Amino acid sequence: MKHIIRLRWIVLAVWIAAAVLLMWQAPDMAKLVREKGQLTVPDGYPSKIAGEILDKHSSKEKGVESFIVVFHSKEKLTDSQLGEIENTVNRLKNEKDRLNIESVTTHFGDKDLESQLVSKDGKTVMTLLNVKMKGKEVKDVRKPLEQAIHTKDVDAYMTGNSLINEDVVISSEKGLAKTEVITVIFILIVLILVFRSVMAPLIPLLTVGMTYLISQSVVAFLIDRMDFPVSTFTQTFLVAVLFGIGTDYCILLLSRYKEELSDGNEVGTAILNTYKTAGKTVIFSGLAVMVGFASIGFASFKLYQSAVGVAVGVFVLLVALFTLVPFFMATLKKGLFWPVKKDISHSQSRIWGWMGKLSIIRPLIALGIVGILTIPLLISYDGELSFNSLDEIGNEYDSVKAFNIVSDSFGPGEVMPVQIVLENDDSMKNKEYLTIIEMISNKLEKLDHVNKVRAITRPMGDKLEEIYVKKQADEMGKGIEQGTDGINTIKNGLNDASKTLQDNKPQLQEATGSIGKLTDGTKGLQSGIGQLQTALGDIEKGIRSGSSGAARLKEGVKEAQEQALNIQQKNRQLLGGLQAAESGFPKLVEGYNNVSVPLQNALEQLMSLEKPLQELMENHPEIAADPNFQQIQGIIHKAARQVAIAKGTVSALNPELDKVQSGLQKANAGLTELTNGLGQYANGMQLIIDGLGQLQSGMDQAANGQNQVIGKIPEISKGLDQIASGQQQLQTGFGKVSGQLDQLTQGLSDSSTGLAKIGDGLDNAQNYLEDLSKDTNLQQSGINIPDQLLKDEQFQRVFDVYMSKDGKMTTVDVILDTNPYSNPSMKMIHQIEQTVKEETKGTKLENAHVGIGGITSTHRDLETMSNSDYNKTVTYMMIGIVLVLIILLRSLIMPVYLIVSLLLTYYSSIAVTEIIFVDIMGYPGINWETPFFGFVMLMALGVDYSIFLMARFSEYKELDVKTGILLAMKNMGTVIMSAAIILAGTFAAMLPSGVLSMLQIATVVLTGLLFYALIILPLFVPVLISLLGKANWWPFTKRDHSGSDHSSNHHGISQ
After folding, report:
1. What is the pLDDT of residue 1020?
2. CA-based, 20 to 30 A from 165: which of 142, 225, 780, 965?
3. Is residue 72 within 8 Å of 99, Cβ to Cβ?
4. Where do transmembrane segments lie in this chain (predicted)?
């Protein structure tokens, strides 16, 4: 110390040079916070795994951020406003290169996206941007985009996780600036009041200010060159801690310096005595704080580690306190306390003196006061935490405004959904994997707080009904119902056909018999024609022989005419029967053909049932063992065979019917020709009869005419031969028809019976499928993805959205109905994890890599990690502080109750903070960062006051315990209360920052420090000290310090 005093000007020059050089060369701290201060999750956590899988399979460039542009109006957007929004979107597309936009997703030009990007009330429109950062900071990319999205008559904002984080940084920077100014002003005012001097307050400000500038530069170099942890808290904590404890230490040193001067010591001696006593206290206090913050380095969480920079600042502060402060003491001497002109004196604390007496004389009352103040707080404390980053900065920032608008218009989960990422070794572009994905999605949709699920099998958030067996069974049931109706129609037609054939069987038999008679008549007619030809020959001879036989000829002619007319009459009857048979025969043929068509239709429908039944059996093998299903399948096979037989019978009969019809046509033609010939014959006879009167004159003509008639007779005989032949064929055909008709009738009857059984089987199948469609278990797991769906062009585009090109990675988006930052949302992550695990167990995705992304999952991982780090870091910190206390106090007992006193203070102050921010202000919980940093700050800084008091108490070891602690309290009370007020004030300066976590941490530390300095330390600790007596120094022995530099004779102790 003597060398420092002697070389003090050189020391000052070194400090100034170091400050200038470091500030000149140091990296920009704000830029480092943006680049390296974002929250990150270590490897192995679900959100980290999800990010790694997405990066591995993503076709996007690295460094691409997703922004949401929100267009909003208080009233429903008009067509004019929508037109302006579309113009803005088109401007973004046209200026993609200038604005670093990779892609724009909008509903303009794609109506399928309208339900997702336009709110139901029509007040809000979203447009999604993928922005290429290209190594730029968010603020640099953001500014031109904000200018580009400006839209006439419509509010336009942007949001996204990176934008919200950027606004948190901006808010922190603004808060830091406010904190620095308020801290300096507050400390200056308090120091003036404490020292009643204008000069003395400047010493701590100059010392700590120099420390802060150098510490910040050193930490910036460490961050830039050695990846030292950093966050938005780093600078703020540096300001608060350095100005807080730096001022406290300066007060301690200056107060002791003032006390030494008041004892009449020279400046040099006073400085040396100050650093021998108070300097020792400062060293150990600083070490405790430094160890406390350095222990944070054992944490895994980068945010927690970022407070390690404070340890660097504390080290620089200790160097400054032992170099710069002696400079000011030695240079200003007693002028340090200017304008005080009277003798410098040191006053004791009356308040702490009174509380010390109460603790020693009335310990139960003192403990009662402590209990009354702390127990209700401890009971009321719930420990509920909040991870809502939006609460950090309030609604004044555009990113938060946009988020709240989207949350209100579309639901909070739409902005930042939970994204499940599945990675498999094989391609998942097939039915089996898609079925598993749909089963996962279906199960997730049924969880509490899940609004909807979007996946490759439900791209719009609604499940595709056509891939569910329930829907397919319903459709198949309807088809079977139609088939049943068709089969019933066929059955009825077959019954009618069978009945008609049965009814017409006697007529057919009668017709067959009549044809036989007709054939005999035709043969008789042919014989009569022969006789007629002989008679005509005789007549001709008679005519030729002369008129002697005219009378007899005339009689013969009449007789021949009568025979011809009789034959003609019978022939006409026969012709009428044949014509009737011929005209009715096409109807018979048509009837048989009509029977063939429904039989063919029935056969085709029965065959069409085989494929869906086969697919149903393949997709659900368990159905194959079902007796009902087997019966249905057997009935359908048997019916198909019977219908095929019936159809074959009808087909075989048709050619025979054609032959019969051909015979009828020939017979009719012959009979027609015969009838015409008989008519001519009768007319000729009439001419003969009429001409007999002119026999003599027309004998030659008669003979010639007779010769013509005789010439026609062979043609008539030939026609009768044809008729007889046709009649014989007709009779043979009708005989075959009659024989096959019985088979046909029986076949139709059997087919009708078989179709009735098929109808019954189809009714059973329809009932089974109806029950199948109503089965709730099947509704949940019965999935059958049709092949045609996979080939659908529109469905192929879905693969590009939800699956990687190689098919080995797919995503499932879970949209919650709660705020993605809220505790209920975070609790959902575990349920989502378990659901995915359960649904993939025993499937081909059982060993797939699963990650869960999204801000909700990230914060849940932060919670898990922070809880783990909290316990670990707190343990290390406690061990470090206890070791420092053991070395300083040479006791194992005192560190224990001092730590207990600090823990009691911490939990009381965190309970007060919860009452203020949760119970009164209505926040969902204490910010998740608050407990850790509040604990670290309060323990590291609160232990200072314990050291202040106990170090002074250790100076009075030669006195009895009660006298020593009371004297220490009187002498240190003012210093500790002033230090607590100043340190609390530096943290109170964080309150106007507007950053919620800072407000809460400040409230914990502010409340804790005041509570510790005014209640716990003066009432709780002295009770334990006085009760333990000499055991305070266990296991070390109490030693006398008669040679102490401090003389107690100057301090009267009044009990």
Report:
1. 93
2. 225
3. no
4. 7-26, 175-195, 202-223, 235-254, 282-301, 307-332, 360-379, 873-889, 896-920, 932-951, 972-995, 1001-1029
Share of the chain above pLDDT 70, in %: 66
543 and 658 assigned to the same domain: yes
Helix (H, G, I), strand (E, B), or coil: what is residue 822?
A: coil
Return d(Cα 619, Cα 623) in angstroms, integer. 9
What gap in Å lies between CA 53 and CA 531, rounded to an integer?
114
* pLDDT for res 920: 92
Q: Is the separation of the CB atoms in 746 and 503 below 8 Å?
A: no
1047: exposed, middle or buried (Cβ count in 10 Å: 0-12, 13-18, 19+): exposed
- Of 246, 161, 256, 169, whose CA–CA distance to 209 is shortest? 246
Residue 973 neighbours by CB under 8 Å, 6+ apart: 348, 349, 351, 352, 353, 1018
Find where tokens 């018979």 sit: 588
As a whole number, mean pLDDT of residues 581-610 equals 62
Report pLDDT for 945.
84
How far is the C-alpha of 102 from the C-alpha of 133, rounded, in Å? 10
Helices (H), ranges, 775-925: 776-781, 787-791, 793-802, 823-840, 855-889, 893-914
The pLDDT tens digits for 212-245 are 899 989 989 888 888 888 887 888 888 888 888 8
Report helix, strand or coil for 39.
coil
Residues 1005 and 935: beta-carbon distance below 8 Å: no
Q: 785-813 burial by CB neighbour count: b if 16+ within 10 A, else e?
A: beeeeeeeeebeebbeebbbeebbbbbbb
| Total domains present in the chain | 4
Alpha helices (H) in 2-78, listed in sequence order = 2-6, 8-25, 29-36, 46-57
Domain housing 362:
2-25+169-392+861-1050
> Which residue would you say has higher pLDDT here, 884 or 537?
884
The pLDDT value given to residue 538: 66
User: Is the domain of 735 the same as that of 586?
Assistant: yes
CA distance 652 to 657: 10
Residue 14 is predicted with a pLDDT of: 86
Per-residue pLDDT, averaged over 402-421, amounts to: 85
Distance separating alpha carbons of residues 896 and 893, to the nearest angstrom: 5
Determine if the pTM surpasses 0.70.
no
CA distances from 418 to 57, 413, 620, 924 (A): 18, 8, 33, 21
Bin 651: left if φ > 0, else alpha if -120 < ψ < 50, else beta. Answer: alpha
Non-local CB neighbours of 921 within 8 Å, separated by 6+ positions: none
In a domain, 397, yes or no: no
Claim to verify: residue 429 and residue 516 sit in the same structural domain: no
50-59, 210-219, 373-382, 1023-1032: least confidently modelled range: 50-59
Among 726, 748, 779, residue at a domain's last position:
779
Q: What is the Cα–Cα distance from 18 to 214, expressed in whole angstroms?
A: 7
Say if residues 353 and 972 touch (Cβ distance below 8 Å).
no
Q: How far apart are CA 748 and CA 757, in angstroms?
A: 14
3-class SS of residue 647: helix
pLDDT at 1043: 37
Distance CA 179, CA 173 (A): 10
Return the top range by mean pLDDT from 384-393, 646-655, 697-706, 901-910.
901-910
Computed over every residue of the chain, the mean pLDDT equals: 77
Query: Is 91 domain-assigned?
Result: yes
Contact 33, 123 (CB under 8 A): no
**Placement of tokens 């089987």 in the chain:** 761
Of 105, 121, 153, which closes a domain?
153
Dist CA 572 CA 677 (whole Å): 12
Beta-carbon contacts of 941 under 8 Å, excluding residues fewer than 6 positions away, are: 241, 244, 245, 289, 983, 1005, 1009
Residue 1041 binned pLDDT confidence (cut-offs 50, 70, 90): very low
Rounded to whole angstroms, the Cα distance separating 150 from 146 reads: 7
pLDDT for the residue numbered 423: 93
Are residue 575 and residue 617 in the same domain, yes or no?
Answer: yes
